Amino acid sequence: MKFDRWGNRLYTGETSYDVVGRRRTWYVIAAVVLLISIGALGIRGLNLGIDFTGGASFQISNIGGDVDESLADAAVTDVIGASEVQATTIGGDSLRVRTGEVTTAQSQEIVDSLAQAYEVDPGEITSSFIGPTWGEQVSQRALQSLVVFLVLVGLVIAVYFRTWKMAVAALVALAHDLVITVGIYALIGLEVTPSTIIGFLTILGYSLYDTVVVFDKVRENTEDVTDSTTETYSEAANRAVNQTMVRSINTSIVALLPVASILFIGALLLGAGTLLDLSLALFIGIAVGTYSSIFLATPLLVHLREREEPLVKHARKVEARRAAHPVPAGGVALAEQDDETDLADRRTLLADKQLGQRTQPKRPPRRRR
Q1: How far apart are CA 308 and CA 222, in angstroms?
Q2: How far from 350 is each of 45, 281, 331, 354, CA to CA, in Å?
Q3: DSSP alpha helices (H): ranges in the chain?
Q4: 22-71 pLDDT, tens per residue?
Q5: Model confidence, pTM
Q6: How far apart are CA 198 and CA 142, in angstroms?
Q7: Torsion (CA) 333, 337, 340, 341 in degrees, nearest 10
Q8: Averaged over 290-312, what is the pLDDT?
Q9: Distance between alpha carbon 50 and the CA centroid of its chain, in Å?
Q10: Mean pLDDT over the full length of the chain
Q11: H or E element that contains 57
């Protein structure tokens, strides 16, 4: 089936997936992944860069021939002994070398050693020092920004959708995306830099945008759901997820393509370290955010709202009507059994087998003049 036709069938109801009804499955998957992520954070921890731990950075420009990163490791080791050295190729003819904290004298010796190893003039090497205090300030500002962001987001969503339960569901999805992304960094041992923190914060905005779009469709489908006699709140919400599924996938693909280009072409081939830090966080976060907006946010919202007294009474009314008017094999719409049913309610009652356009009234054939 072509993708566009599949999307049309999802929107019209000819094809339907019971996403909300299988929410326990999605909860289990989310719980397992979250436990793995939290375990990785607790056991392995994050591999913080020198921007957070403190250290020195040396950048060598205009290197002739191939850039051999192992020469940098040997040159620094000759000066300060065994130490953690991180060498990253930048642009093909430049190299960035990061070490732990060194003295001013050791810094000059490292510059001379690197110049000799790569046969460049010492003037082509720039050095800078970063203290751990700067990294602590970055972390504190990031946490402050995160708290303010979450509070404001919760208030805006609660006011816009007129229910705090949508705000809770959206914030849980955001926390899910952030914890998993950070957990993957801890599990693989990827270095966390200020660019990575920027990527983490960017993930929140993307995930929230996708979730709000789905919630807006949920609100549209469920606005007058208690007046219907053929569909419960959970079924209307599930229909909204199906109708926005293709849009979420398309948006994610469009967002992932340039990020993947930066990640695989710009970072891996050209060796742009800063781009790698930012694009990798975005790539992981966008993929996880797409999953949570479809399989976590709306099922959680339904879980929170379906126990409200008006919705409980409405669900019983729908079940009673279905019991009085059972659907025969083949899925005949209830509207065909009751002439008094509104045209807006003419849809099948079988879960996951909505008839969609087949339940719409047929137009009379045009008369030929």
Answers
A1: 14
A2: 49, 42, 6, 6
A3: 3-12, 23-43, 50-53, 69-80, 104-118, 132-161, 164-188, 194-222, 233-260, 273-295, 297-305, 309-324
A4: 999 999 999 999 999 999 999 988 888 777 777 888 888 888 766 788 88
A5: 0.73
A6: 8
A7: -20
A8: 91
A9: 27
A10: 80
A11: strand 55-60
Residue 162 binned pLDDT confidence (cut-offs 50, 70, 90):
confident
Residue labelled with tokens 């995160």: 146
List the single range of 124-138, 165-179, 268-282 with lowest mean pLDDT.
268-282
What domains can be seen in the chain, in order of their start residue?
A: 3-48+134-305 (1.20.1640.10), 55-130 (3.30.460.30)
Rounded to whole angstroms, the Cα distance separating 169 from 295 reads 12
Least Cα distance to 212 among 238, 259, 174, 256 occurs for 174
Q: In the block, which residue shows the tokens 């569901």? A: 169
Q: How far apart are CA 181 and CA 119, in angstroms?
A: 41
d(CA 218, CA 228): 15
Which of 153-162 are b and which e, b meaning 16 or more Cβ less than 10 Å from the residue's Cβ? bbeebbeebe
At 317, list the tokens: 């009314």
